[in-house]
Amino acid sequence: MYNFEAARKRSELLMNIRKYFIGKDYLEVSTPTLSPYLIPEPTIKAFGTRFINEFAVSRDLYLIPSPEIFMKKLLAAGSGSIFQISQCFRNAEQLGDVHNPEFTMLEYYTVGADDEDSIGITIDMIEKTKLHGVSPSWLENKPLVITMHEAMMKYAGVDMDKAEDIGYLRSEAIRLGLNPGENEEWDDTFNRIFLTYTEPALPKDREVYLTQYPDKIKCLAKDDGTKPVKRRWEMYIGGIEIANCYDEETDKAKTEKYFREEEEKLIRERTGTEDIIVPADPSFPGLPIPDSSGVAIGLDRLLAVHLGLNSIEPLLLFSLSDMLLQ
Amino acid sequence: MIKAGQIDKGTALLIKGQPFVCIEREFVNPGKGSAFVRLKLKSPSTGQVLSETMKSQDNAEDITVEDRDLQYLYNDGENFYFQNTETFDQIDVPMKSFPDYEYFMKEGETYRATFWEDQVLDITIPSKIVFTVAEAEEAVKGDTVQGATKYVTTETGLRVRVPIFIKQGEKIRVNTETKEYLERVNS
Questions:
Q1: How far off is chain B from A16, nearest CA to CA, in Å?
Q2: CB A213 within 8 A of CB A232
Q3: Nearest C-alpha of chain A: how many angstroms from B98?
Q4: CA–CA separation, B89 vs B91, rounded Å?
């Protein structure tokens, strides 16, 4: 009933990863999974619970969707490069295949590195931490690094140089047979095209690093400075999204603006719905983040692709969907 | 109208005037983007499968469907022929819309069908069906590697791997999803 062979492989992968980062002088940290505040992220739904204190005011607490908030506090306090393997929680996601509301994340921050350095680090880490006696075919092929500009042109015929103009992007979406809504936000029209044509067409026989996302998709990665793109990437193996990376934003004013806008959006979208509004951490935007690059990897998914699976379910000793079926 | 995020496997939709049934649904959250759903939708009349990616908040036109019991009569290679057990109307359903269903259609058995107006959108196959063994191979001597099994063919033409003791004319229960033998049925 329980897949102990998979449990052994997971243990081996985690041990290899710990050895890898410790060998490169990263400090392994352990930060909370339960927090009174988070980074405002309107696209992620959190799990909420309540801390009951008989002697003081009780407080709402939230399970972290990633350890970013705490790891960046450590970076700002001078920790140097750090890594962590932790449980993370995302609500309102589908059960099964590549999703489980509780999952294992590897997150590592390399001080002094940028997003391009992180590609090299990630390729090397994946190669050096591979499982004994298992050789998935994707690991034999040279990883592909492709910009969003190249991928959108190649797989959807969309010229991202012109796509700053929402009118052009809309007309391209319609040309491709899609139905962008009236007054739709730029991100949504872009994602319609990206998710229908580009993402499914990315090569599946190797690691694919998709880089330079449009800067119209707001996030805490640095602006490129010369092109209208963010210094971030996402990595896919076998069509499954495995990792993402930012060259972390260090400009306090930009971080503050991002926080304010995302928090406003979150409150606007969730007021009057059942979705909980998680308080944003007020101290976060003022943190003196050093130049650094952070990568988050879904470890259940990485283990799955090492073992040639396209689902994480067989790897979870207790998947939530199984528990709910009982 | 329903939101695309509420579409589930089995939901029937009208797309450009044609009915489709959702056969696969996957939620996708692009990095830093709104939630989307990837759908695979099958046309019951042509068997054509559409891939659609929609924002969870997009509207879709759902249709009201109704379940009716149909007794299976026969097929002629192109259509399945059923009889409505209440009205005794005869109903034909193109076989190409339901590939491999002929292996699970037993004459005289009753199946639940999902209708939109007069069109059959879906036919529910029971998860377990009892078949009669129409043909049984001789067990290969010395072949004990697989725990001594052989193939038999049911009256519907389905090939099933069974233990060697199963003989022609006996009844067996089969898992219709995996096409695997479950047990011998004593009649």
A1: 27
A2: yes
A3: 25
A4: 6
- Residue A177 pLDDT > 70: yes
Tens of pLDDT along chain B (187 residues) come to: 999 999 998 899 998 888 999 999 988 888 778 889 999 999 887 888 999 999 998 999 999 999 999 999 999 999 999 999 889 999 999 898 888 899 999 999 899 999 998 889 889 898 899 999 999 877 665 555 556 788 999 999 999 999 988 989 999 999 998 899 999 998 6
Angle A320-A324-B1 (CA atoms, 0-180°, nearest 5)?
95
d(CA B82, CA B101): 13
Interface test with A, best of B27, B32, B56 (most A CBs within 10 A): B32
For residue B17, give how far its alpha carbon lies from the nearest alpha carbon of chain A (Å): 16
Which residue among B89, B104, B124 closes a domain? B124
Residue from the list A44, A92, A195 with its beta carbon closest to the beta carbon of B36: A195
Q: Give the number of domains in chain B.
A: 3
Give the DSSP letter of residue B101: G
Kindly state whether B28 is in contact with chain A, defined as any CB-CB distance less than 8 angstroms. Answer: yes
Extended strands (E) in A12-138:
27-28, 34-35, 48-51, 59-63, 82-89, 102-111
- Same domain for B48 and B82, yes or no, is no
Residue A279: Cβ-neighbour burial (10 angstroms; 0-12, 13-18, 19+): middle
Query: Which residues sit opposite A45 in a β-bridge?
Result: A91
Residues 7-26 of B with CB under 8 A from A: 26
> A4-143+206-325 maps to which CATH number?
3.30.930.10
Q: Give yes or no: residues B16 and B47 share one domain.
A: yes
The interface predicted TM-score (ipTM) is 0.82
Whether A187 sits inside 8 A of B28 (CB atoms) is no
Check if B35 contacts A (Cβ < 8 Å). yes
Extract the tokens encoding A131. 């499982």
